[in-house]
Task: inverse folding
């Protein structure tokens, strides 16, 4: 991966973290706010490969923790762990879009529990997780279209 | 695996506070972008809401015009009372006491997405602006909360409706003699406890901070009493107070810095 692409991934991840905590938070509200950064990481994983996904997770995650006044590195570690777990299990258990999507919905919900520090069940948060995965797949789709255009 | 280890090291560094200088540096540049984008989002949302509710806005405008006329009448009466008050002060040789708030700073507000109890908010003012832990946030004379954490360019504020919030209040309509202990109850509701059964309070009474706890200055508006719980089996009364502040639509607050 060349340096330009590295920088682009980092910039987009920063932008996603800022959007998640400002515009998206304002439009979607407290519980429905989708995890844009995880959606982006999912998009990178499905298309651009593990390096982009890890970079996005680490840089975006650290900024997200800075913005949310959480222990710096917590989001970065959890999302990187998710990326690692995903690449470990995808060949064995995750066959098809539905299984992968459900796997990510569960992971995002667990992430919300860890970050908020309380065990809870909230339908709105569940919808937010589904929304995040949908955004992730949309990003992956447009990324794929972009790659196809570049290759043409 | 290499990236996972890097993120683990970052977490360890972060846990021991080694990333704090980096956080302060990054937030100095990122905070204005974040708060600016939020303002754009609010304006866009407000524009949509305005066009969706033009009829309601018209009715509201007419009602506000009526209220303005009423207030103008009251202002005239107050101006006359003020003149009379000045004359009486002059006769009694009482010095004016300044009630102006000094040491205040305006801060933009943004929600804390990770706080599921919605009892904390972030402010775009921090140590560099002189904001310290324990400072009070107010809006239109009403108390909003207290500063709990500060970093170089940001701070977090705990709302008065937080369950961790506890402060002394008094009933304005009955005087400073009627005091109670206010505790946050989520949303915009506050429960005032430890009111003696003999003390006369009514729904609609205004509740102010008494300042005796040293947490908030005296005389800040907390809200209005909406419900009084008087159980004969209980030695003390309770009352629910609804804050006059809409915490969900809060955009700016004044931070009253401790001298």
Result:
């Amino acid at each position: 991966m060349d340096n330009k692409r590295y920088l682009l991934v980092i910039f987009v991840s920063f932008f996603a973290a800022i959007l998640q905590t400002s515009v998206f938070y304002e439009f979607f509200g407290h519980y429905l706010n989708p995890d844009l950064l995880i959606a982006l990481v999912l998009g990178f994983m499905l298309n651009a490969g593990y390096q982009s996904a890890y970079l996005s997770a680490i840089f975006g995650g650290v900024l997200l923790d800075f913005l949310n006044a959480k222990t710096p590195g917590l989001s970065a570690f959890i999302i990187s762990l998710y990326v690692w777990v995903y690449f470990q299990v995808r060949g064995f258990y995750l066959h098809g879009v539905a299984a992968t999507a459900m796997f990510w919905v569960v992971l995002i919900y667990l992430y919300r529990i860890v970050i908020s520090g309380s065990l809870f069940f909230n339908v709105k948060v569940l919808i937010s997780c589904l929304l995040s995965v949908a955004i992730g797949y949309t990003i992956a789709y447009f990324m794929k279209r972009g790659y196809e255009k570049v290759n043409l | 695996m290499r990236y996972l280890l890097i993120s683990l090291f970052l977490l360890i560094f972060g846990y021991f506070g080694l990333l704090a200088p980096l956080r302060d540096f990054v937030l100095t540049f990122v905070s204005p972008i974040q708060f600016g984008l939020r303002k754009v989002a609010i304006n866009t949302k407000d524009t949509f809401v305005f066009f969706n509710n033009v009829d309601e806005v018209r009715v509201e405008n007419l009602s506000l015009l009526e209220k303005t006329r009423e207030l103008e009448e009251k202002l005239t009466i107050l101006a006359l009372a003020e003149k009379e008050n000045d004359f009486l002060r002059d006769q009694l040789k009482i010095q004016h006491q300044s009630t102006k708030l000094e040491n205040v700073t305006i801060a933009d507000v943004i929600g804390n997405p990770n706080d599921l109890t919605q009892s904390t908010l972030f402010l775009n003012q921090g140590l560099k602006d002189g904001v310290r832990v324990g400072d009070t946030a107010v809006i239109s004379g009403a108390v909003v909360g207290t500063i709990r954490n500060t970093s170089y360019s940001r701070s977090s504020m705990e709302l008065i409706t937080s369950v961790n919030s506890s402060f002394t209040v008094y009933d304005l309509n009955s005087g400073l003699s009627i005091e109670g202990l206010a505790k946050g109850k989520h949303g915009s509701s506050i429960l005032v406890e430890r009111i003696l059964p003999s003390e006369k309070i009514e729904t609609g009474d205004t509740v102010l901070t008494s300042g005796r706890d040293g947490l908030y200055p005296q005389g800040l508006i907390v809200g209005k009493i909406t419900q009084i719980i008087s159980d004969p089996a209980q030695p003390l009364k309770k009352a629910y107070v609804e804050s006059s502040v809409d915490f969900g639509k809060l955009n700016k607050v004044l931070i009253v810095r401790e001298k």
